Structure prediction request, 133 residues.
Amino acid sequence: MAFENRGLDIRFDAGEDLSSSQYRFMELNSDGEAILAGATGGYAVGILQNTPEEGYAAAVRVDGVSKLAIGSTGIYGTTGVAINTFVSPDANGRGVGETGVGYAPKYTKARVLESTYLFDKLSTVEIVSANPA
Prediction:
């Protein structure tokens, strides 16, 4: 079962409705507001911890341990991630593994501490640097 621990959460205004985006990667738009990561090709600043509507406070975990929704991963579209896999956001802010032949790493943002093999299932991750892998 996915778990979380204390971490460093930073408050940003929600730049869009994030009420169905809890435990997904967030990035910042040009106004410094939290938006779902992945769609614009930017890198994630952290993982959303609450469910704000647009204009309300978004609590984004930037350090520590968090839950994260997992998406399809790898070049063959397999689902799930194994322990110690580094993940980055997909187009919908879910974590996808940075492994596979010919699959170039992007901006790695978290390391999986608890494996899961179900799409959109919560996994436990350790938030790591947003530097390129």
